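ERR on first pass: missing label on line 2. Operator R.T. fixed the label and resubmitted. Corrected input:
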Amino acid sequence: MMMQMMQQLIPAGLATELIYSFVIILCSLLIYYSTKEIYKLSSYKGLKYFREAFFFFALVYFFKSFIRFFIFFLGRKEIFEIASSLGNLSLFIFIYASSIAVFYLVYSVMYKKWNHEKTIIPTLHITAVIIALISMITRSSRIILGIEIILFISLTIITFISHKNTKKPNNLRFIYLLILIFFFLNIIDLITPNFRAFQIFIYLFSIAIFIGILYKVLRKVGG
Amino acid sequence: MRKRNKLEIIKDILEIIQFYHNSIKPTPLLRKSNLSSTRFKEYYNEMLEKEFITETQSKSGKCIHMTDKGNMFLEKYQTIINFIDEFEL
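pass 2 clean. output:
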């Protein structure tokens, strides 16, 4: 009886989305808080941006499920059909936080090579704001898709070129690449309704990646 | 000689203080840290700011001591390094 009532209130698709977002938010916040002590002691910049990337990931997935709930609540098909200021603000924060999360993750592994922190960080924020504004003004999934694809390709190329001479064998770059791929797929999943056939696949792989990173983090910090 | 990074230098300075039973004067600390006086001052001020070390003044002059936070840094140093290494930060 209770289950039936719940199913009427929250359809299976939305419930899956909420559970999925909850797992990712939990993993991201656990990564953020479990590294707090070693960051406080070391004040290491790479660690700072690594942690903040996961904080922004948590924010992104919170807004993703919020937008999904909002779309469901208003009975719309996609975010662009919501003309209210709350819809616009949610989309703006979602796109801005998505870009910053990815920028910070890339910067955490690149900051030794990119020394100009005082100019790079504001530039990254300005770029994220511009991307979010373009998304909000154009309200076109094709334009957002185009921007995200360009961003993804550029970041992947930059990171791989910069680390191609690293002799140390490490599968981490592959994991970061998977994060980027699935993170962008998550954005596409939200802005393109036709993409939802791949949802379960995206959700399962995203969860596996975040749990894998959380496991690595907890093992290293002794949590 | 291999160039030490910032975290390694802080660890080395704290280990010197620890080796001298948690009390050492600034001049021998500077000498044993293998740093120029300018760089030593930078690290010294940073460690004071982070509360890894404290200063006391006695009749015989200024003495440097390691705090609990400094001790915690030494305990966690390997964890921090392993983490940075593992995640290529």
